[in-house]
Amino acid sequence: MTRWKWAGVAAIALCTTLAVAQDAPESLLPPGFDDPAPPPPTRSRPTAPSTQTPSASSASETSTTGTAVVQPLPGVHVPPMPDLGSVDLSDIPSDEELEAMTSDELDELLGLKPKYDIPPAARRAMTRVGVLDSSEGGMPNQMLGRQPASLVRSTLAGTKGPLVSRWGHILLRRVLASRLAAPEGMSPVEFATLRIGLLNRMGEYAAARAVAQDVDTANWNDAMMGAAIDAYVATADITGACPAVRLSRTDRNDGEWKLLQAICNAYAGEGTSAGRDLNRALGQEIAPRIDVLLAQRFAGAAGRGQRAVDIEWDGVEELTPWRFALANAVGEEIPEGLRANAGPYYQRIWATAPMLSLVQRAIGADLAAREGVLSAAAMVDLYSQIYANDEIDGDAATRATQLREAYVGEDPVDRIAAMQQLWGGDVASDYGRYVLTAYAAARIPASEDLADDAAPLLASMLTAGLDRDAIAWANVVEEGSQAWALVILARAGNRGTIPGSLIDSFVDDDDSSDQRKSRFLLAGLAGLGRIEQGDVAKFSDQLEVDLARQTKWSRMIDLAAERNNPALVALLAGLGMQGDSWDKMTARHLYHIVSALNRVGLGAEARMIAAEAVARG
Predict the structure, then answer these.
(1) Could you give the angle at the alpha carbon of 388 between the alpha carbons of 386 and 392, nearest 5°?
(2) Residue 202 burial (CB < 10 Å; 0-12/13-18/19+)?
(3) What whole-number distance in Å separates Cα of residue 65 and Cα of residue 426?
(4) Residues 6+ positions from 287 with CB-CB distance below 8 Å
(5) Which DSSP letter does residue 582 get?
(6) 615 with 584: CB under 8 angstroms?
(7) Which pLDDT score, from 0 to 100, does residue 126 have?
């Protein structure tokens, strides 16, 4: 029997015990009410109550009845007492079990656990979920409302990892964070869950948490609970998940969940029971020892006079999101051996976690900037703080000094030299450093004397979308060069088609692997409509590229463009740009992405993606 059933049975049994404890139950009604007069007829005038005293004989009859029964009030139905002889009470917990229960468990046991933690007037509708309104640059809220739920579901769930394009990442984040209505046939909770999950996979944990917070916790299901907790853990905001954890009716029972429940109980004022639960978890090995110790340290901060907890990393061979989050939250330093092998997940968090030191944040900044998680302005802010801190030395301090020289060097040559030191290798491998120098590169005046350095400068400018500064080099760069290709792809407006002879020059000088840059240039120009169809066919044959071949994905994104649906085009573009490097991208995919984006009014993003492809190809 479930706890809910026997809780009700226990209550009934208690009432029954009280009823049979009396030797001779008597009527609680005053004399004369045992046999009340029939109710007056409808619309009759009420009469004054009778003041006649009942006779002694009638009172005697009442008192000498074989079994006195409490008479119900007129019109009140008293349900019959259930037969408890067939009820199994063996599942009722003992006194010891009841004492060991937390208040949450007792509330759930007795059916007192509320579904909502906010008053009705403050509850939010789920007609639109997200944090970026259309007036703030987000997508119109009904953009996906009439799209097939199966298409949106498969697109969001099918985008598994990072995107090859920084600008593609930025565009996809913008769509996922927009205030959008769910597609027809899909519940708003599922739609929000899919978006939160994809934001997590992209490393956009703060945005994922923000979308989750736009949904009342009472509306969360198990899937959304899991996705939201992943975002809270990644941002080290452990207590942020507590409203949902304490209201949850999930069947989840793993060690991490029990630790999270104990932490939330501690911060809800139940420090004693939380400490007991964590001690039990440590003794019964409900979770690894390091996880429990970190949870004890975190929970201990909620009370006063708690015992100190020594964190022991001996024997810990791997870093997990849970350990990483709690260690960061309590200020516990993670051993160098574990940090050295940290993968991209942890590097993205290092770059954005405000509680970490500036040096630690610089460790993951390059990756986060390359993928689109960090902006150029955020990178400059980070290294400006590093430069201002005299106690910081090492590689981070050196880069901060070089960045300052890139801004304030005496002449453009010195500033370019400082940027070259920051860039290190080529743009394909060190793209995050090009993001760092975007605004410094834009300060270099367009000059024929600096034409040889134009290509990396332009690539750096365009990481931040500084297309106007890039166009200033149009009359300086050599036609047919890579710098020329970046300029013609980045410029806005329709200024006619590009002569095939200039494309010939670019192809002849292209030394990239499999002439990938030439293929991307062809795809970008064709997608933007800046090349004659005859030249498209000519260079397609020369470069062995078939831009006309269709797949299910290409038909879908082309159809979305025909319907003028930028949100769906952006989602499908993200699906087609999955990968960790540009060698995973094909010219045919790039062509359909650039073309579709350009047709639905996202021409700026289309131009930046096309230029990025040539720069990083």
Answers:
(1) 50
(2) buried
(3) 105
(4) 255, 256, 258, 259, 281, 295
(5) G
(6) no
(7) 86
The predicted-structure confidence for 472-512, as pLDDT tens digits, reads as follows 999 999 999 999 999 999 999 877 899 999 999 999 999 99
* pLDDT score for 407: 96
Q: What is the largest CA-CA distance in the chain?
A: 126
Residue type, 459: A
Q: At what angle do helices 222-234 and 188-201 cross, to 10 degrees?
A: 30
Residue 376 to residue 432: CA distance in whole angstroms? 9
Beta carbons of 179 and 129 less than 8 angstroms apart: yes
Identify which of 261, 315, 318 has the alpha carbon closest to the alpha carbon of residue 289.
315
Give the confidence band of 98 by pLDDT, cuts at 50, 70, 90: low
Go through the chain and tell me how many residues it has: 617
Contact call for residues 218 and 126 (beta carbons, < 8 A):
no
Query: Of 507, 489, 510, whose CA–CA distance to 498 is shortest?
Result: 489
Residue 551 pLDDT exceeds 60: yes
At residue 366, φ and ψ (nearest 5 deg) are -60, -45
pTM: 0.81
Which among 277, 270, 217 is positioned nearest to 248, based on CA atoms? Answer: 217
Say how many C-beta atoms besides its own lie within 10 A of residue 186's C-beta.
19
CA dist list (Å): 252 to 270, 350, 443, 520: 21, 29, 55, 48
Q: Is 80 exposed, middle or buried (0-12, 13-18, 19+ CB in 10 A)?
A: exposed
* Cα separation, 421 vs 424, whole angstroms: 6
Q: Which residue has tokens 């073309």?
A: 595
Q: Distances from the Cα of 322 to the Cαs of 211, 255, 367, 549, in angstroms?
A: 21, 11, 22, 46
Please say whether the beta carbons of 217 and 244 come within 8 A. yes
Q: What are phi and psi of 143, to 5 degrees?
A: -60, -35
| ∠ Cα 326 330 331 (to 5°) | 110
487, 474 Cβ separation under 8 angstroms? yes
d(CA 25, CA 48): 31
Helix (H, G, I), strand (E, B) or coil at 301: coil
Average pLDDT value for residue range 320-345: 91
Alpha helices (H) along 87-204? 95-100, 103-109, 149-158, 166-177, 188-201
pLDDT tens for each residue of 128-146? 999 999 999 999 999 999 9
Q: Which range among 91-95, 98-102, 195-199 has the greatest average pLDDT?
A: 195-199
For 313, counting Cβ atoms within 10 Å of its Cβ (0-12 exposed, 13-18 middle, 19+ buried), the class is: middle
- DSSP reduced 3-state for 111: coil
Give the burial string for 450-459 (b: 16+ CB within 10 Å, else e).
beebbbbbbb
- What letter represents residue 593's amino acid? I
